[in-house]
Amino acid sequence: MNLLQTLEAEHVKALTKKKKTDFSPGDTVKVMVKVVEESFDEKTKQVKRRERLQAFEGVVLGRQGQGLNENFTVRKISYGEGVERIFPVLSPLVDSVEVLRRGRVRRAKLYYLKGLTGKKARIVERQDKDRGAADAAE
């Protein structure tokens, strides 16, 4: 392993301690994104900075990359239009990723969903039999 890969692995290990990314393509997720708003106040001649969290809820189409360069694509339908956003997994602007539903899919990239609407675009929910037993034991 060369020096660059070693440094990247250390950086990833430090960042993954606080973030848990346990989702896959087909899952419906809610991504909480930090939005920074800056405005200039004429009276005090200062720049005011506000941070807030904004939810982006949709289906994960796929994950790309590895390590620090890992991204995932989320697609949702907003007012009849398809909206996609690409989020870096280890970004400081991504506050949290919450899995709402687990989807049962047979592909790693779900780009075929872009052309489908209505009932055709539905993804069947995954029934984890072993996950239920593990949750009951806790």
Describe this structure in words.
It is a single chain. The chain contains two helices and five strands, in the order H-E-E-E-E-E-H. The protein is α+β, with helices and mostly antiparallel strands and 138 residues long. The protein has a single domain (19-137), classed as Roll (SH3 type barrels), CATH 2.30.30. The N and C termini lie far apart (39 Å).
Mean pLDDT: 86
Query: Which regions have little confidence, pLDDT < 50, spanning 5+ residues?
Result: none
Number of DSSP E strands: 5
Oligomer: single chain
How helical, in percent, are the residues?
10-25%
The CATH architecture can be named as Roll
Query: Which band does the percent of strand residues land in?
Result: 35-45%
Overall body shape: flat
Gyration radius, rounded: 19 Å
Q: CATH topology, what is it called?
A: SH3 type barrels
Intertermini distance: 39 Å
Alpha plus pi helix count: 2
Strand order of the largest sheet: 4-3-2-1-5
What's the arrangement of secondary structure elements?
Elements: H1 3-16, E1 28-41, E2 46-64, E3 71-78, E4 81-88, E5 94-101, H2 129-137
Antiparallel strand pairs: 1-2, 1-5, 2-3, 3-4
Offer a few descriptive terms.
138 residues, 17% helix, 5-stranded antiparallel beta sheet, SH3 type barrels, flat, alpha+beta
Quick overview:
It is built from two helices and five strands. By secondary structure, it is α+β, with helices and mostly antiparallel strands.
